[in-house]
Each structure stands twice: as C-alpha cells, then as structure tokens.
Design brief:
The complex is a heterotrimer of chains A (about 350), B (about 280) and C (about 550). Chain A is of the alpha+beta class. Chain A is about 35% helix and about 15% strand. Chain A has a four-stranded antiparallel beta sheet, with no helix packed on it. In chain A, strands 7-8-9-10 form a four-stranded antiparallel beta sheet, with no helix packed on it. In chain A, a hairpin with a 4-residue loop joins strand 7 and strand 8 (about 305). Chain C is mostly helical and about 550 residues long. The chains are: A alpha+beta (about 350), B mainly alpha (about 280), C mainly alpha (about 550).
Chain lengths: ~350, ~280, ~550
C-alpha cells in the first residue's frame, strides 16, 4: 500500500516522519490525509472554545439528546400502560398508534438533529481537496494484467486443443439445464387442465342437472328477490361456489325495467341469444373482460356497468358491449331460466370465455 | 312453456315497479310497531290494480297530505307536473315512488334541483323535516310506494354481516370508506358521510338516480339495519386506529402524502444539513 | 507474584495494535477515514432511499414474526369486531392480528409501508437529480444502470408486499397482475398458471410472493445497493463546478468526523420522519377492505403510487385488440401494450440513456463535474418530457378519484389523459428548452454587463438607464468591464449576493431581521428609495 505515497500531490511538502515526537496530533492527521492525496486547505473552528456561543450550542445539543430520552421514555410508558386493544366506541385505543409514532418520531428526530447540530455547528469547518485517479490505471499495470490473462489462456491451450473447449461447453450446457429444470419443471402448470379456462361453476353437473344461482349466503334466488332496477351478485350453487376457488364464476343478476328489457331482448336476438334472458332478468359475468376486476358499478338508469379498476363501461342493454375505456370484449352473458321450484338456474355454462383475454382465447 | 312464460311475464310486468313485491317483504316483518305502515302499504296495493285512477280522481287527502300538496304545488309542480304526473323532459312521474324517495331526495336537499345536470347534488335541505314528512305523505297517498319504517333503524344489528353486505353491494360505488366514487360521464356515487340512518335506508329502498334498488325482498330490513350500523358505527365514527386517515381515498392520497410530507420534510432537512452554517 | 497493573488508558492502543496485527486494517482504515465527500443538499437524496431501506429491513423482520403466508381459510376471531366470524385467508387474518392483536404491530406495519413509499419516492427524486445534472456520464454509466434496476426491483418488492396482506385491495391488484400475465402473447396462460399454481387465485401465490418479498428480492436489493455504494466510493462522488473544483479533484469534507456525523444524524431524521408518518398517518387500512373475494371491489381501487403510472397507461389505452385469424384464432389483448410493452420500453430507455446520449454527443470523456440543467437544454428538455409523460400517466392512474373529488366527468378525465399523454410531453420539451436558453442568456448578460442594481439614472440627454454593477473591477480596453467567462456555476444576480446589502434573509424559514419600512397599506408603497441603496457595493464578490 505504500505505493500510494508516490502519487502524492505535487505541491505537498516533503514526507514527514510520523514518529517525530514534536509533531502534534493534527499534523499526523494532516500527513495521513496527504498520503491519501488529500490536502486540507481550510480548517477553522466554528466556535471559540469556552465562548458563550459554544456553551449555548452545547446546551442546545444536550437539550435535544435529553428530549430524546424523555420521548423514548414516554414511548415505553405508552407502549406498556396505554390501552391498546381495539374496542369499539372507546377513544383511548385509537390514540395508541399515533402516540407511539409521535414519541418514537420525536426521540429519533431529537437524536438526529442533536447529532446534526453537533456536527454542523460545533465541529471545525474544513475544506479538503482530494485528487481523483480515475483515468484508468497505470498503463504498465494494464499491460501486465492483460498479458497475464492472455498467458493463462495460452497455458490452458484452448486454442491448440479446441476439443477441450467444445466438449466442456457441451458438457456444461446440460448441467445448466439441470440447474434450471427442477425449478421450471416444478413450477410449470398446464393451464388447460380440465378445460378450466373455458368453464365456470355454472357448467351443468354430471347428470346434466342445471346449476342454481345462489346468493353469497347460499340461498337460492326467486325472481321476486331482485327489485326492478336492482342487481344481485350471484354464484353457482355448487360446493365452494361462493369462494375464490371459483373466482371466475361470480355473476351479476339484473332485473331490468320493461323498456330496457325489451331493448336488451332485441339485442340478444340479434346475436342469436333469444333465450338467454328470463323475463326481464338478465345475467352477465361480474368478471371484467379487461383485467378481471369485478365490473359491478351498475347504473340503473343508464344501464351502464362500470369497472372501477380501469373504467371500462359496458352497455347492459346491448349485450354488455364495451362502450368506453380499455375493454375490448363484451361481458359474457349467462343463459338463465327458472326451475320448477321457482328458483333461478343457469340453462348452461357461459358460452364465452370469462375474464381477461389471453392468446388462445378463441 | 311459452304461454306459461308469457303469463308469468305479464304478471311480472304488472308487479314491476309497483310496491306490491316490497310490501310483501315488509309484511314478513311482523313487528307490531310497523303494523300501521304495513297496513297502509297493503292498502296502497290497490293502486297497482287501478293505476292512475286514484291520481286523477283527487281522492280525499289527510291533513298532512293536503299540507304536502300545497307545498308540492308551489315548489315541485314545475318539473313533476300536476298531481305528480311528471313533465316530459323535465321531471319524472312520482306516482308510486313512495315517501321513501321523497324523504331521501327532499330530505337531503337534492330536490328541488337547482338546474338540470348529470346528477342532483346534495345541498342544505330547503324544507323542514315536518314539511318533508308532509310532502312524503302527499306522494304516498297519491300513488303509494316504499316507505321507511319508523323507529330505530339499527336494532339488533350485526356489524360483521353489515360489513360483508356493504363490501359486496355498496363499496364498488361508495368506496371502502364510504367516501363515494365516480361513475360514468360525470355521475357519481355520493359520500355517505352526511347521510342519516333514514336517508341510507330510503336510498336502498328507492334506488335514487343511478343507484340500483335494494328492496326489502333483496336485502331484508334486518340486513339493512346491519349495513346502516356498519356505515354509521364503523365507517363514520372515526375509528381509525392508525392516525389521520388522509380522507380514505386509498393509495392515491398516500402517494401524495409521501411526496408532500415525507419528501418535502427530508429535502428541507438536507437543505439545512448541507447549508452554510 | 506481582499483580500486573491494569492501565486503562493504554487499552485502546493495545487493542488496536492487536487487531492490526491480525487483520492489517490500519492502512485501509486510514483511507476510509480520509475520504473526501463534496457537500451539496442534492447529494443527500439518495441517502433517503438508503436509510428507508434500512428501516424497511428492520420493520420487515418484525412483521415476519407474526405474519403467516398461507391461503388456508380460517374464521377470524380477533379483536376487530366488524370482521369477527368472517371467513378469510390465514394471511389476511394474521395481517389483522398484526394490526389489532400485536402490541405495537400496527405502527410497525404502517412504518414499513410508509418506508416503502419513501424508498421509491427517494429513488425517483435521486434519479432525477442524477439525470438533470449529468451525473450518469462516463465513468458512472454502470451505476446509473444499477440505479434504474433498483427502481424496478423496488417496484417488484413493493408489489409483492402490497399483495401479502391478501385484503380486498391487494387481491384486486393481484387479479390485475394475473390479467397482465395472461395478456402476454403465446405463453401468457402458461406463465400465469405456473405462477399461480393453476387458475387464479389458486392456493399458493401468497407463499410464493412471501418468499420473493422477504428473501429473493431483498437479497437482490442488498446486492445491488452494495455495488451501487461501492461504486460511488470507488469512483468518488461528482461535484459541482466552482472555485478550485476541477475534473481531477474532489473538494469537500473528509468522511470523518463531520460528514459521517451528518450522515448518522440524517439517518435518524429519516427514521424519525418515517416513525412520525407511521404513527400519525394511517396507511392501507386493510380492515376496511375486507378479505379478498373475487366478487368484491371498492371504488378508487388503486395501486401504490409507483405502480400508478401503469394503472394510468392501462386506463388510457383504447380497447384495441389484435386478432390473428389462424386456426381457431388468436388474440393480443389491449392490456398487453400498456402493461408489458410500455414498461419494457421504459426499462430499456432508462438503462440505456447514458450510452444514447454519449453516442449522440460523441462524448466519451470522463466527467466528474456536474452540469447545471440549463447548460444542457436538450437533456433537460428530454427529462422534462419524461417527467411529464410519467406524471400524466400517474394522474390518470388516479383519475377516478380526481373526477369524483373535483366533480369532473370520468370519461372526460380519460380523454384528457389520452390527449394529454400525446400533447403535454412535447410541450414540456419545448417550454423547458426555451426556459433553459433564457436562463443561459440571462447568465451571459449578467456576466457581460453586471448585476441590475435597481437604480435608474437619468442621463444628461434625458434618457433613463439602469445602473449595472459589473462583476469585475478590472477595466477593459474601452472603459467597460470585460465580459467574464461562464464557468458552469451560479452567477450572482442580486446585489446582496455581491455583499452590497448583506443577505436579506438570515433565518432558515423567516427573516430574523424583519425588513424595515414594510408597507403598511398595500395601496401606498413607500416611494422613496432607502438611503443606503444609493451606495452601490464595492463590487467585491463574496465567492
């Protein structure tokens, strides 16, 4: 490491003997700095030792440290004795976190500003200049290192014995693949297992039995359960139907007004879905075809359905066609009817893919 | 099959928009206190089978109804027409909307509207509570419709159920904290903060403006009580454990706060630290 | 036997000697102690990010003791009554427990979240500083790339953390993320089902995100931050031009003791600000959002601010799908462009910028002196353009909140964003460029003619001229002061910067010496100039 003394600043004086007993400590420090190419050009006490200003600053800093102590103690006291458990209608617990934050924050700010004032106001001001040496290394060193590396390559003799290199690469490639294989192989999952991307919980059961529409508490739904101009979130009446296991199944059942229902029916017929509605009831997937949020902001007068995530707007009376925003595909419609007991059932599964688009969506 | 469907559809068409379905739900209440209201609704069902007849016949009104009519003829008739029949292009017919709707629209100051706009805004109400009651009585006697029951609307409420129902039915528009949200083209779901128990109840019953209707058949009075309790006691009683809630607008205000408070404070700190002493 | 005398005073020296005997640390330690750092407030912005990262590690470790990364369904039975009896995932239940049933857990959670927001905000602000001052130029391109990567890795850390509580809001974000992955052409559905372990949401995503959030991503962050700091240390910090400052030196303070004290104090201040925010401002009140259920959503569902620009780009994108009529037909959904392609372009542009600029300017020299933004109008304007682009997207990410709170039509907000995204950045470029040129010109004018004194002189022929105070006293050939050369640093433009009047404002926030003769009535300002103004300063520069 002594080589660095050679890079000394040219204007620096002769090297100093640091063992010289006459040297003050600061002079040794200065010499050390010089060895690191630093010149301390300006070094000035900010406060006169023993002056009034110094005492005042010392008091200020001490006060800040003491404030920290007080705040930290307060933190501990609050932490231990303040009522902290949530209890409706009581004010005390509500202040627990704010008080902790306040005391902790004050404690930290106290020590922070104390240290800062100490460093900024009490320590001597200095201006030092350090040389940079960033224009590449010593050209000789560059040459030596470069030659050494080339020499290493020569020693290995890959050039003369190409088979070694090729066979090593050929051998290593599978090893790399071995490292990656368990990770990829373990993670990879066939997306089209059980045709899961194209089916929902409303797919008729094994025996062709139609699936009932149920509410979030499991009750099946009669037509009289949805008010005119009302909407209801419905789920397939199967096990786990009201859970994230069937995240693509939630459906919005809407009871339209007579004239809106006529428009909707006409739109349905244009698309060959004459039997998808039942009476004035219509059911659309709640899962947005854009990014999969529940598109459920139903405006009962304009019959628009808004998705709160990206503001796609769908016109319910026109097959839930997207009329604004980033969505490109209408919401799929669930064909519904009422069974003998008077409950809504799905006539079949959705005829279109639910949720966000993907490459192989037909 | 088709004829059966048609018959059902016909019946439904007649039921549609009329209070029968709701009054059925209400009858299930069985609460003695609400008996009077239920009876009145059952009576109101008559209007379903003879729509319009009553409205034109000017049936005898109660004293409160007459007072309400007097108010109506001064303040509402311009847009809603004589006998609340509605005026094309200005205001809808109020036959069958019930006193719940009056209570919500007039009681929250939305009606009378200052001007035609995308959505009526909440304003300081122009009528006293008594006048609102009279107007409601008039509209009720005119065409029947849903009514907000009297008494405590949060009796025996279960907050957890209320929260679940709120999140599934209300939060998509009114936001998780009840602060409201935007709808398409200038419409919006208002903040729930100024709403009273009765106004929330009335809004669910009547589906004002673009809000879907949540009749008693769909969300029972008990469930409505749960929702109201959740809104009033959890969302509105300022039970934020973590300090100032930043208006509960979600991450947008949090992002604003980190720049306006965090970054600004620390930039000032660094200005001081690096400043000349 | 004689008891050996214990000399306490000699202990440090002895220990130090013993340590150096074994580890030979004296020389490297001296070099470390003797390291000069330039002092400027803008050099402390990166430290904010570094210190909030330390706070993130501290609070994050606390949270792992109580958090359960599992999606198994449990029924909540904690002390928060409005959710009691609600079925939810174990992850959400444990997050609620941290908030309500762990003493002091909520403030830790909130500090963690605020620290994360601060981390990202400080990275961006620091990045802007580095960009606009040209600190990324050779030899610091590598560090610029690492810094850009830190933003994107921090972005991932933030998103995975945002998803862990498994509340309604984070589940919605996860749902959108799955939609984004699905939108990738050809492999989308395979990647999505591999990450989620089947169809969304599956049962495994939370535990996978957990290990990514607490081990893989922080590990990467620590590695990147270490290299970042190591390079700053090795290459030495850049500095502003100024007296005595050259491309070959660093003018400032040695690391110890003053600089290090300031750093330590600043760490405490950052920590303290985070603690204050964590206690006083509620963040992410997960108990209002409820457990994630695929059919539940709240209005104003937004990601954290640093993801909001992607949400904004998604909102602004028109619903253009590309269908490829081969076989059964294939589609590229509109979601693909703003959420996969756009960030890809941004990563590429942001990491490659130093090389693009060097290539354009054919500038391959070492640069250790910073540039004032006005002196490189093209770069500054490009930066302003990028900032405008980002701000339009970020605002669009919250356009529903803006629409609601300021009573603007939501659809109008979307259109404003679409038009604004195309119009505002070029406008920002042009305006910034002109402002830079104007500032440059003003600098040159002051150097040539001196500082405006505010004194109007009437010439014998009746003309009025303003008296300028030249910056140099040396006489030029025609009696005028010669024009000074611009050296890339602040040109004094007010008399009090020249020592004529003394600084008007002494205090940090408010003047300690209140300006005398403040006009009592705004209608009648004092018309008489103050006496001392007549004495124009000596022209001595304080700099």
């Amino acid at each position: 490491m002594s080589t660095h003394t050679e890079h000394q600043a040219p204007q620096g004086p002769e090297p100093v003997d640091v063992n010289d007993p006459r040297l003050s400590r600061f002079e040794i420090v200065q010499e050390g700095a010089r060895r690191d190419d630093i010149e301390i050009v300006h070094y000035e006490e900010q406060v006169v030792p023993g002056s009034k200003a110094e005492r005042r600053l010392t008091r200020t800093v001490a006060l800040m440290f003491l404030l920290t102590g007080v705040a930290a103690t307060a933190f501990l006291v609050i932490y231990i004795w303040w009522p902290w458990q949530w209890e409706a209608g009581r004010g005390g617990d509500k202040l627990y976190t704010p008080l902790l934050g306040l005391t902790l924050g004050l404690a930290l700010l106290g020590v922070g500003f104390g240290i800062l004032t100490w460093g900024k106001k009490l320590l001597p001001k200095e201006v030092s200049i350090q040389d940079r040496h960033d224009q590449g290394g010593n050209p000789e060193d560059r040459k030596i290192t470069g030659e050494t590396m080339l020499y290493l390559a020569d020693e290995l003799g890959v050039k003369r014995r190409p088979l070694l290199g090729i066979s090593l690469l050929a051998g290593l490639a599978p090893v790399g693949a071995v490292a990656a294989a368990p990770l990829i192989g373990g993670l990879i999952e066939q997306p089209h297992k059980n045709n899961q991307m194209f089916t929902t919980g409303f797919a008729p059961a094994e025996g062709g039995e139609k699936i009932r529409l149920i509410r979030e508490d499991g009750r099946p739904i009669r037509p009289a359960d949805v008010s005119v101009g009302g909407q209801l979130t419905v789920f397939p009446g199967i096990e786990g139907g009201v859970s994230n296991r069937h995240a693509d199944s939630p459906t919005l059942l809407i009871h339209l007004r007579e004239d809106d229902a006529q428009k909707s029916r006409a739109a349905n017929e244009r698309k060959g879905r004459g039997d998808f509605m039942w009476g004035n009831y219509v059911a659309f997937s709640k899962i947005c075809t854009h990014a999969g949020c529940p598109a459920s902001l139903y405006e009962q007068q304009t019959n628009r359905l808004l998705c709160p995530c990206h503001q796609s707007q769908f016109l319910i009376t026109d097959n839930a066609k997207p009329i604004f925003g980033p969505a490109n595909r209408p919401l799929p419609q669930l064909p519904i009817e009422v069974d003998e007991e008077g409950f809504f059932v799905a006539r079949s599964d959705y005829t279109e893919t639910i949720g966000p688009d993907f490459w192989e969506r037909p | 099959m088709t004829s059966d469907n048609d018959r059902r559809r016909g019946l439904l068409a007649r039921l549609r928009g009329r209070p029968v379905a709701r009054s059925r739900g209400r009858r299930r209440l069985g609460a003695a206190v609400r008996l009077a209201a239920a009876l009145m609704l059952a009576g109101g069902a008559y209007t379903v089978f003879a729509p319009g007849v009553q409205a034109q016949d000017n049936p005898p009104l109660t004293a409160a109804g007459n007072e309400g009519k007097a108010l109506f003829d001064v303040s509402c008739v311009t847009c809603h027409g004589r006998n609340a029949q509605g005026v094309e292009g200005r205001g809808p017919s109020l036959i069958g909307v019930g006193s719940a709707s009056v209570e919500f629209q007039v009681g929250s100051g939305r009606m009378p509207m200052a001007r035609q706009e995308a959505q009526a805004m909440r304003k300081p109400p122009q009528f006293t509570d008594e006048q609102v009651r009279q107007l409601g009585q008039y509209i009720q006697e005119l065409g029947g419709g849903p009514q907000v029951p009297s008494g405590n609307l949060r009796d025996g409420a279960n907050m957890a159920t209320g929260g679940e129902l709120f999140r599934i039915n209300c939060s998509q528009c009114h936001a998780f904290g009840g602060g409201g949200g935007a709808l398409s083209s200038g419409k919006y779901a208002p903040s729930l903060k100024p709403a009273s128990d009765r106004q929330i109840y009335a809004a669910m019953l009547s589906g004002p403006q673009n809000m879907p209707v949540f009749g008693d058949n769909q969300i029972t009075p008990q469930e409505k009580a749960d929702i109201i309790a959740y809104i009033q006691e959890t969302l509105k009683s300022d039970q934020d454990q973590g300090g100032f809630n930043l208006g509960r607008y979600g991450p947008s205000t949090e992002g604003l706060a980190i720049f306006l408070v965090g970054i600004v404070a620390l930039v000032f700190a660094s200005l001081w630290i690096a400043g000349k002493s | 036997m004689k008891r050996r005398k214990f000399d306490a005073a000699a202990l440090p020296a002895k220990t130090a000697g013993a340590v150096d005997d074994r580890f030979q640390v004296a020389t490297p330690l001296r070099k470390l102690l003797n390291k000069v750092f330039p002092d400027h407030w803008s050099f402390l912005l990166g430290e904010i990010a570094l210190f909030s990262f330390v706070v993130l590690l501290l609070t994050g470790v606390f949270l792992t003791f109580f958090y359960e990364p599992a999606m198994t369904e449990v029924t909540y039975d904690g002390s928060y009554a409005p959710l009691r009896g609600t079925p939810m995932s174990a992850a959400y239940a444990s997050s609620l427990d941290i908030s309500f049933d762990v003493r002091g857990g909520l403030i830790m959670r909130q500090m963690h979240h605020w620290a994360a927001l601060l981390f990202m905000a400080a990275i961006v602000v620091h990045m802007l500083r580095v960009f606009f001052t040209g600190a990324f130029r050779k030899p610091r391109e590598t560090n610029w790339i690492i810094g850009s990567l830190l933003f994107w890795v921090g972005f991932l850390a933030g998103f995975t953390g945002y998803s862990l509580p498994d509340d309604g809001l984070s589940g919605t974000g996860l749902r959108i993320a799955s939609g984004i992955i699905l939108s990738i052409p050809v492999v989308g559905s395979w990647v999505s089902s591999s990450i989620f372990g089947g169809e969304f949401p599956g049962m495994i995503i939370i535990s996978r995100f957990f290990i990514a959030h607490v081990l893989l991503i922080p590990g990467l962050l620590v590695a990147l931050i270490s290299v970042h700091l190591g390079l700053v240390f090795k290459q030495k910090h850049t500095q502003w031009p100024g007296p005595g400052r050259t491309n070959e030196n660093v003018v400032g303070e040695r690391m110890f003791p003053r600089y290090a004290l300031k750093q330590g104090g600043f760490f405490m201040v950052v920590f303290g600000v985070i603690a204050l925010m964590g206690g006083l401002f509620q963040i992410n009140p997960i108990w209002y959002f409820g457990p994630y259920e695929a059919w539940v959503v709240s209005a104003a569902s937004q990601p954290d601010w640093y993801v909001m620009f992607l949400d904004g780009s998604t909102r602004l994108m028109p619903g253009w799908e590309i269908s490829i009529p081969i076989g059964d037909g294939y589609v590229i959904p509109p979601l693909f462009w703003p959420t996969v392609v756009l960030p890809g372009i941004l990563v590429g542009l942001s990491t490659m910028y130093p090389f693009l600029e060097a290539r354009r300017l054919k500038d391959y020299k070492h640069h250790n002196l910073l540039q004032r933004p006005r002196d490189v109008p093209a770069r500054t304007a490009v930066g302003a353009m990028a900032v405008a682009f980002y701000v339009v997207l970020t605002l669009s990410g919250g356009n529903d909140v803006i629409a609601d709170k300021f009573h603007i039509s939501l659809n109008a907000m979307t259109w404003a964003g679409r038009v604004g995204l195309l119009v505002i950045p070029p406008l920002a470029y042009y305006v910034t460029y002109r402002i830079c040129l104007g500032l440059q010109q003003h600098d040159r004018e002051v150097l040539a003619h001196g500082v405006e004194t505010g004194i109007i002189k009437r010439l014998p022929d009746g003309r009025f001229v303003e008296v300028h105070q030249p910056l140099t006293s040396a006489d030029g050939h025609d009696g005028h002061a010669p024009a000074l050369d611009y050296v890339g640093w602040v040109v004094p433009k007010k008399m009090n910067r020249l020592g004529a009047l003394g600084p008007a404002i002494r205090g940090f926030f408010y003047p300690i010496e209140k300006p005398a003769e403040a006009p009592v009535s705004p209608g009648h300002p004092p018309v008489e100039p103050r006496a001392e103004r007549e004495e124009v300063g000596s022209g001595e520069s304080r700099r």
